[in-house]
Automatic annotation (TrEMBL):
Classification of source organism: Bacteria, Pseudomonadati, Bacteroidota, Sphingobacteriia, Sphingobacteriales
Domain of life: Bacteria
Gene source species: Pedobacter steynii
GO CC, any one term: cytoplasm
Name of the protein in its database record: Biotin--[acetyl-CoA-carboxylase] ligase
PROSITE patterns: BPL_LPL_CATALYTIC (PS51733)
Length: 259
């Protein structure tokens, strides 16, 4: 479907809306592997996912029809292998900037790419890359944003919120999708143009708990420190007792209590 409501160059111009699917990432993966070439920027969105996937093999639960669950197809063949975290940064900044059109203050990126409001999760990103030799052939960017849902099952989710809970009013899903696509496109073009330091600055500026004393669990031990950087390769730098240490995703867990 040609999309005239999106003022983008390519992200979301080919928009495929599904009423039900296992996972928009899975659907897009099948489309990409078909022989017909797929236009870069194609977006698959679904009212309902019955097997939505989150990071670390988690399930992504959302009430049908109330939220955004969609995947974007990009071809970042210009991106040197090893610099993939910059794409995470670009996507997270794009989502944050779009949400800031609706909520002025308080939207943060929780490293590596969760979207938070206060101490509650509002959205998440699942990026799946396909490499061809040493270049990125294609990338599927799966995004879930809690929009008009008010009740979250605390047994399934740690602590979640939605735009409606914050604004106390409904948000139009297509308008929000258009905003997110437009902001992601802007950041993606910045990445393509090699604007790495701007991306790193913007990412860190929007980071949850940046430079704040906080507690983390590392190797079963509770530690206190402050985030002072995120490296280009995506490692989280925590300054603890005067020493800066770097952690990857599986090595560190954010704890909610304050020191
Ligand atoms: C996370 O925070 O764990 C990432 C959640 C990503 C969920 C989105 S919803 C659209 C796309 N399709 C999926 O199956 N997952 C992503």
């Amino acid at each position: 479907m040609q999309n005239n409501t999106f003022s983008t160059l390519f992200v979301g111009q080919n928009l495929i809306k599904l009423s039900e699917v296992d996972s928009t990432n899975n659907f897009l993966k099948v489309l990409v592997s078909n022989s017909e070439p797929l236009t870069e920027g194609t977006v698959i969105m679904a009212d309902k996912q019955f097997a939505g996937r989150g990071q670390q093999d988690n399930i992504w639960h959302t009430e049908p029809g109330l939220n955004l669950t969609f995947s974007i197809y990009l071809k970042p063949s210009f991106l040197p292998v090893g610099k993939q975290f910059l794409l995470n940064m670009a996507v997270s900044i794009g989502i944050r900037n779009a949400l800031q059109r609706f909520v002025k203050d308080g939207i943060r990126i929780k490293w590596p790419n969760d979207i938070y409001f206060g101490h509650q999760k509002m959205g998440g990103v699942l990026i799946e890359n396909m490499l061809s030799g040493s270049t990125y052939k294609s990338t599927i960017i799966g995004i879930g944003i809690n929009v008009n849902q008010l009740h979250f099952d605390s047994r399934k989710l740690k602590s979640a919120t939605s735009l409606k809970e914050i604004l106390q009013q409904d948000v139009n899903l297509i308008e929000l999708l258009a905003e997110i696509c437009s902001h992601i496109e802007k950041q993606y073009l910045q990445l393509k143009a090699g604007g790495y330091s701007q991306l790193k600055d913007d990412y860190v500026r929007g980071l949850y708990k940046f430079n704040e004393p906080a507690v983390y669990r590392q190797n079963g031990e509770v530690i206190e420190g402050r985030i002072t950087e995120v490296t280009e390769s995506g490692l989280l730098g925590i300054l603890r007792a005067g020493e800066l240490r770097h952690y990857n995703f599986k090595e560190i867990e954010f704890l909610n209590n304050t020191p």
